[in-house]
Every structure is written in C-alpha cells, then in structure tokens.
Specification:
With about 500 residues, this protein is of the alpha/beta class. Among the domains are: about 140 residues, Rossmann fold (3-Layer(aba) Sandwich), CATH 3.40.50; about 100 residues, Putative Large Serine Recombinase, Chain B, Domain 2 (Hect, E3 ligase catalytic domain fold, Alpha-Beta Complex). Helices cover about 55% and strands about 15% of the residues. The chain is built from 17 helices and 14 strands. The strands form 5 sheets. It has a 4-stranded parallel beta sheet, sandwiched between helices. Helix 4 runs antiparallel to helix 5 and helix 10 runs antiparallel to helix 13. It is flat.
Length: about 500
C-alpha cells in the first residue's frame, strides 16, 4: 500500500485571499483520503508564499520522500506545491526517479504516465504564469497610483486609506492632533521622549494602544508625506493628498531632530542653553559645555570644542565662559533686530503697499476674467457656425484649437496670479515681526529664545578663538549694515539715509 504525505500551504499575501485556510484544506484532504482509502502517515503545513523557492517545510517533505518514507503526496491543488519553476521541477524530477509514485488532488487528476507528467508541468506552469501576471498587474496599478500622486502603501498617522476611492484622506480624529505635535516639535524645545508623551496624552498611540516607539516616531517626523511629498523605493514623488504642514515647518522639524532628537537625562542644575548651538570653527565638531563649582560655592560654566576628531588635532584650547557667549549672542541678536518704532513704521508702509496692490490686483484679475469670458463666447459662436454647416470641420478644428490654447494660457496666468497674490508682502511682514521679536529677546536677555531665533534665521554657526560667527540670509544681512547712530535713534538723517538707500529699494524690487 502506498504511503502518503498531506501537504497544505497558504500564503498571507493578498492574491491568495480566496484559497481555503490550512485548517479547511486539512479537513478536505482528510475526508478525501478516507473516501479513497489512502494511507496517510504524516501531515505537513506552512504559511509561506510559493512564488520563490526556499520553503523549509516543503523541502523537509521532499527530503523525507527521497529517503523513502512515503511515495505519494496529497494536496488541495498543484499550485499548493509550487508556483515557481525550481520547486515544480523538483517534484517532476522525483516523479521521474520513482521517488514519487502518486500525486492526488481533489480538484486535479494525475498519473505517472508521460501524459500525466506533461499535464502536471502545465499545471505548475499555469500557477507560475498566474503569479507572474498578477505581479505585473499589481506593478501596473502601483505605477498608475504614482502618476496620480497617490502613495501605494498604508497611510501615516493623521491620515487614513479611503476604501471606496482608494485614496489617502485626512483623518478627522487625528489630523489636527498630529499637526499640533509636529508644530510643537518644530519649536526645538521638545525631545523625542517629550513629544511622544505629548502625543500619548492626545490619544496618538501605536496599534497596540501603547506609546509610539521612539524609532517609529522618528520615522514619522522625517516622513515627507506630511508636507505633500512621499518616497517610494527611495524616489521622492509629488503627492496629491492634502499636506499637513509646510515645507518650511518640515525643515524646522528636521533641524530639531538633529539638535534635540535624542532623549537625554540632564539634571535640572546642568541645563546649558547653548549646547548643540554651534560648531568648532577649526575641526567642525560640536561645541559642548561643562560646569565647575569652586570651593567657595561659585558656579562657572564653560563652552569648548568636544575634540572628537580622530584625524585632526584641534588647536582650540580656549574655554569660553557662558556669560561671555551669552553676551555675544545678545549683541548678534541686537544687530539683526528691529526696534518697536521701526516695526510700526515699516508695517505702516507695507499696509499702504498692500492697499495699492489690492487695487491694482483687482483690476488685473478682472481683465483676465473678461478675456476668458470673451474667448468662451467666441468658442460657442464657432460651435454654432459649425453645427449650422457654415464652416467645414477642418476650419472649425483649427480655429477652436487656437481659442482653447488662448483660454488655457489666460487661465494659467490667472491661477498663478491668484496663488501668488501678496505673498511677498506677507513674507516681508513676517520678517519684520520676527526681527522685532529678536529685539525684545535681546533686551530681556532670554538665552533660550535668542538661541532658537539664531538657529532659525542663521546658518553655519561656528565658534573660533572664542568668537561666535553666524551667516545670515540676505534680509538679515541688511540689518547688520545699519549705521550705529541710526540703530540708536531710529530717526534722523542717518536712519533716513539707510532707509531710503536700502529698505525702500528692497521692497520696491519685490513689487
């Protein structure tokens, strides 16, 4: 009597949703064996895809068949045994060698004749073709989603996969909460641990209901999906979903991750305001801080290079006291700041320009809309002439194409104009307010506030020979060139000269 092995397999992949579960396969095969008086000595089952070779339990079963422990296999369908040419070839080879004398399937007939082996090869080939074709269909669907700007994956926290339209939409329950957490972290005052605790208090948790793991949180904070892009296989794609934050805020988040991302255990007595603020101007490594307490009880805090470079011996031996560094930070903030009197004058001027531009913008936009309306009327008249038979089809197409192109050009100009609007004035207004805030921070000697301001507006912050150096964007460089007398008074000839030669021309050039 032939001895049989039962083999059951089910993959967890989506294309096998309709296949019977392993328990159902086992029950069906046991009933089939009982009805046909088949002697089953062992059952094998595994949850593994058969698209590629390397299934451990399947290979174990074939090894035992080569040893002669059984000479027959009972499976639900040939595709349960193989969906790739290597595993299918192994089964047919064992049939040729006589190691497998019988293959039984409730849904497929087989015998060991040349015709039976040919049909088995066809069945294995069909299974492989189905897998390969399914893969192509899936890839084609993914490519189409990428063309539409849709992420072909699970939506990140704050969004959900809309099952009907198969798009990714903002989640009403978590979108605003996640946005608030991103904005908090961008301020630079939260570590990953603190922001995780904040998210947990808002109900933003992992699938298990526990706080989000720090590694998962860092992945969320670096996910470009939140500002309207997404990565697929390392390539950045433009998304069609609603962004949660702006690109500018996302860049601030990345800076905050670099500076404050790692959770630290620092005692309250050793909170150094300028740690991770600047780099050594000689070796490029971070500036660190340390605290010394004298026998008298006096506390001194110093900043110095970490000297971690293994290839360069840093020659910076100076220890800069915290008071001296804070004084330099204060002076720099004052040099790129605007006092309250200047703020009021500049904002008043911008309000005047806004009013003038609004009047001009309204006229310009209305002219574009009128031209579009005229083209639509011309197009309708042209269609009527064609329908009445007064112009031929070729002439109709030629004239209509010209009108359609003109209409598209005008609509693009209108969209660009409405999108840009007074954007440059808004940026200028925000700059004035930020620069005025720096003035108030410097006056109150708010070290954390000044540090965060300079980290936002300045780059390439280095400490060399005890002197802090910072590179600024163009608008802040202009403030560095203010004559001392003009900065002191905010009025008079020195101020008016600087304002008329630098400030007004700068604004006029943006109009």
């Amino acid at each position: 009597m032939l001895k049989y092995f039962i083999y059951c397999r089910k993959s967890s992949e989506e294309e096998e949703r309709q296949i019977l579960s392993i328990e159902a396969q086992l029950q069906e095969l046991r009933d089939y064996a009982k009805q046909n008086s088949l002697f089953v000595i062992k059952e094998f089952s595994e949850s593994k895809t058969a698209k590629e070779p390397g299934r451990p339990i399947f290979n174990q079963m074939l090894s035992e068949m080569e040893e002669g422990k059984a000479t027959g296999i009972l499976a639900w369908n040939p595709d349960r045994l193989a969906r790739n040419s290597i595993d299918g070839g192994k089964v047919i080879y064992l049939v040729d060698m006589g190691k497998i004398q019988s293959l039984k399937f409730p849904t497929f007939w087989f015998d060991t004749t040349p015709q039976g082996k040919f049909m088995l090869s066809v069945a294995f080939g069909q299974a492989k073709y189905y897998t390969d074709n399914l893969r192509e269909n899936i890839l084609r669907g993914i490519r189409q989603k990428l063309r539409r700007g849709e992420l072909p994956a699970k939506a990140p926290l704050g969004y959900y996969n809309e099952p009907r339209l198969r798009t990714i939409e903002p989640d009403k329950a978590t979108f605003k909460k996640m946005k608030k957490c991103l904005e908090l972290f961008a301020e630079g005052n939260h570590t990953l641990t603190k922001i995780r605790d904040e998210m947990f208090s808002m109900g933003l948790v992992s699938k298990t209901g526990k706080p989000i793991h720090l590694s998962s949180l860092q992945f969320l904070l670096t996910n470009p999906f939140y500002y309207g892009m997404f990565k697929y296989r390392g390539e950045l794609q433009q998304g069609s979903h609603k962004p949660m934050v702006s690109k500018k805020l996302f860049d601030k988040i990345q800076l905050a991750i670099h500076d404050n991302g790692k959770p630290r255990k620092i005692s309250q007595q050793k909170v150094f305001p300028f740690v991770n603020f600047a780099q050594c101007g000689e070796c490029g490594y971070q500036i660190t801080a340390e605290q010394h307490i004298k026998k008298s009880g006096l506390v001194f805090r110093y900043y110095r290079c970490t000297k971690k470079s293994k290839t360069h011996k840093c020659g910076q031996h100076d220890f800069l006291r915290e008071e001296k560094l804070a004084e330099q930070v204060q002076n720099i903030c004052q040099n790129v700041s605007i006092p309250d009197e200047w703020r009021d004058k500049f904002l008043a001027k911008i309000s005047q320009w806004e009013q003038e531009q609004n009047d001009t913008s309204g006229i310009f936009a209305q002219n574009l809309k009128d031209k579009i309306k005229v083209i639509k009327e011309k197009t309708n008249r042209l269609i009527d002439l064609h329908l009445d038979g007064e112009i031929e089809l070729d002439e109709f197409k030629q004239k209509k194409n010209i009108l359609v192109e003109q209409k598209a050009d005008l609509e693009n100009k209108l969209n660009d104009f409405e999108r840009k609007g007074n954007h440059w004035l808004e940026l200028m207004k925000n700059w004035i307010i930020d620069a005025n805030q720096a003035h108030n921070l410097a006056n109150t000697k708010n070290s954390p506030g000044m540090r965060n301001f300079l980290k936002t507006v300045g780059s390439n912050r280095i400490l060399l020979n005890g002197k802090l150096q910072i590179s600024f964007a163009k608008q802040y460089e202009l403030l560095l060139n203010i004559p001392p007398k003009a900065r002191t008074t905010g009025e008079g000839e020195a101020f008016n000269t600087w304002r008329n030669s630098v400030w007004w021309p700068l604004l006029d050039s943006n109009q």
